[in-house]
Amino acid sequence: MRVLQVINSLDTGGAEKLLLETIPKYRNKGITMDLLLLNGAPHPFLQEFRKVCDAKVILLGMGSVYNPCLILKLKRYLKNYDVIHVHLFPALYWVALAKIVTRSQTPLIFTEHNTTNKRRSHFLLKHIDKVIYRKYTKIITIAPEVDRLLKAYLGGLDSKFHLIPNGVDVEKIHRTEPANRNEFTAALSTRILVQVASFTPQKDQKTLIEALRLLKTPVKLLLVGQGPLQTECKDLVKKLKLQEKVQFLGQRMDVPALLKMADIIVLSTHYEGLSLSSMEALASGKPFVASNAPGLGGVVEGAGVLFPTGDAVQLAREIEQLLSDSKHYDRIANLGFERAKHYSQEKMIEKHRNVYNQLCQSKS
């Protein structure tokens, strides 16, 4: 069985990291799986992928992933694989249109990673979306909320859907040695907060930054990730005179070690799918505080601490309570670790393999 994974790039992000971690495991289970990137810029994830995996990497260029000419470049690859598995927009569109142009019979799978996007509120794009999704043989959703909302949005395509939650290697994270705290603070009394998220409109680092002003306990916030809104967040830090309390780390390859070092892990966001960073946070054994946002609240409720999206005041209160009440702190940390065990990466891989096998059998 030959499977091609297609994604925009291996820049920072949950879907990108999922492919980095799982493609080698699929190959170890006997699946010939390759990777195609619309943009082949040498991001750290791509460099790491080449180190850990001998899969073929197909690069379509270094230009914009929104260039329709990518449809023509994709055409030649559709016939070379038994299954094409696609992630994220605009790869969603370009692969479907390449299938139309070539009249390819190769089954397509699309994994929906988010509860919503801007296209769903745009009159024209909403109708184009429905045409594009119909070109996919199977649609994988990563969380119940993602599944429910996409089914309602598309209408009439329920038979194509498979709900397969994302997974993490819980034991690997549990065994990871913590990073060195002295790299970030020399003060023993300073508590470390970590958020791992891209700096995009979907995320909400600004609320977390604003919450720092309200904390009485000395803290150091480490923001891991990169993206177009990073400059705005840095400007906000300067405006609030929090330069000594916030450090921007960019993209890191040692995220599990950073999480194991942290006192509290936070994910302030506007919406999610089933974020890999939230799964890693729960698996770290540290208390997890998250926005009660679509796609995230249901995952964290009963296993972490939720605060109203965009509410810096309540976020600060929740952080202070965790730092001042050791019993509460330990209880939340233990609940999170137990919840993470439900999201096994091995189970996720096995369910994907079953979908691939079904498509290959029906094709033959």
Could you please describe the fold and organization of this structure?
The protein is an alpha/beta fold and 364 residues long. It contains 15 helices and 13 strands. It has 2 domains: 186 residues, 3-Layer(aba) Sandwich (Rossmann fold); 171 residues, 3-Layer(aba) Sandwich (Rossmann fold), CATH 3.40.50. 43% of the residues lie in helices and 16% in strands. The strands form 2 sheets. A 7-stranded parallel beta sheet has the order 3-2-1-4-5-6-7, with helices on both faces. Strands 10-9-8-11-12-13 form a 6-stranded parallel beta sheet, sandwiched between helices. Strand 2, helix 2 and strand 3 form a beta-alpha-beta unit. Helix 1 packs parallel to helix 2, helix 3 crosses helix 4 and helix 11 packs across helix 14. The longest helix is centred in the last third of the chain and has 19 residues.
CATH topology of the largest domain: Rossmann fold
> What is the number of independent domains?
2
CATH superfamily of the largest domain: Glycogen Phosphorylase B
Order of helices and strands: EHEHEHEHEHEHEHEHEHEHEHEHEHHH
Give the low-confidence spans.
none
